[in-house]
Predict the 3D structure of the following.
Amino acid sequence: MGNYASVADVSAELTSAIAAQLTTDSGTTPDSTVINEQIDRAEKAVDAYLSKRIAVPVNVSTYPDMADWVKRLTLAVVVWQLYNRRRISVPTVNAAYNAVIDELKAFVEGDVTTPAGEVVPSTLSEGASGNWGSETLVSGRDNQVGL
């Protein structure tokens, strides 16, 4: 199950019948494994853009104002991926996907803000620190002596 969207969200977005057609070769029930794989891929794509300005994955419990936004972004990507995996091109699906990618690019450029008003921790703060395995990493030009 994803951080931003669920199988139920995808089935509701597409209708259960269409979700089944896009995820199974036969049957009337959507394949939750296929949908979860696509949700995971979509969230990674969305996070790749978001990570340019904010910490990911977005904790929608901590930042509930972000939940609908990241869900909408993720669902547009998932729906496009599901059609694309069947090599089906639907103009409205393509337009929705392209609009989301444009919105994500605009977010990276600073032309779009988060619904939470940028209160989500930034990944670009000067002097930020974190842990990688057993080493402590510190970012910032002044801290990178000898490189």
User: Anything to note?
Assistant: The two ends are 41 Å apart (CA to CA). The longest helix spans residues 64-85.
